[in-house]
Amino acid sequence: MTAARGTDVDAPGTAPAGARASDFPSPPCGKGSAVEIVPSGSTVPGTPPLPPAPRGRESLRFAPAAAARATVFLANIRGGLGALVRPPRRPVTNLVPAWRRLKVHGALAIGVVVLAMLFLDAPAYEFSITLPAWFVDDAYEITDFGRSGWILVPLGTPIVLIGLLSSPALDRMSRALLAMVVVRLGYVFVAVGMPGLVSTVVKRWIGRVRPSAAGPFAYEPFSWRPDYASFPSGHATTAFAALVAFGAVFPRTRPVLWLYALLIAASRVAVSAHYLSDVIAGAAFGAFGALLVRDWFAARRLGFFVGPDGAIRTMVGPSRRRIKQVVRALVAS
Known about the structure:
Helices cover 57% and strands 2% of the residues. It is mainly alpha-helical. The protein has one domain (95-332): Up-down Bundle (Vanadium-containing Chloroperoxidase, domain 1), CATH 1.20.144. Strands 1-2 form a two-stranded antiparallel ribbon. Helix 7 runs antiparallel to helix 8 (234-249). The longest helix has 35 residues, at 172-206.
């Protein structure tokens, strides 16, 4: 049977004209029906893939472990700082403070600084400006290694990692070994960072003009400008503090550290960043500051101890083999 000419025939699957949606029942849903609920992430032929449903439970299952790790890390930091700032458990009566032991050395250093200001600063500066350009360029490459970041960042990174990874799950011997490592690294960190921080403030209080036509006796105290921050040299302070600190923990490194410290100090004069008296004062300030920090650690038996004769001695450190074993255990955990 055919449709009459002039009339419309509805295409298969379409509703007749004038029909309402309520005239047709909703199709059943379920497997085997015309409309089927498709799980998230699955696909139907001819349709684009659906995004996976959010997995909130899986993303949250690591939260308790992260919180526990953060709690252990904060406990380790509090314990380390507490051991550093606590008063000595037993009074150390035979310890002679560094400022008393080294008062003759300090007087000599002050005298050398004054003589350098009077007779050597101006000639040394005039000589530095005549140096060839290639020599000054090499000095700039060397002097950059006098920045404290080259020392403090490599020291601070393992301290933070040990505090993050160390936990009560480790055996007692392993935790004691890690504590010894942190104490030694912490001493060098404080012995280098503290004198450097103090010298940064002091040099701006003094306000000595850096080498220039103004001469070695131009000052502008409390200016807080980089070009008025010449005395003492911060690079020399860091270099000689590192010399004393590393040398106290690793005595075999002293020859190399002497070479490093002298090169840094000389480079500051060569690049006309400091007068000779600036680097002499910075060297004395850094060495003295590192010794003061060592006294503080020794009074609390942190890496050092005071002998019966009042001399400060370094405690025996862990072996490399044992350190490697504990590091493997940390990584595995």
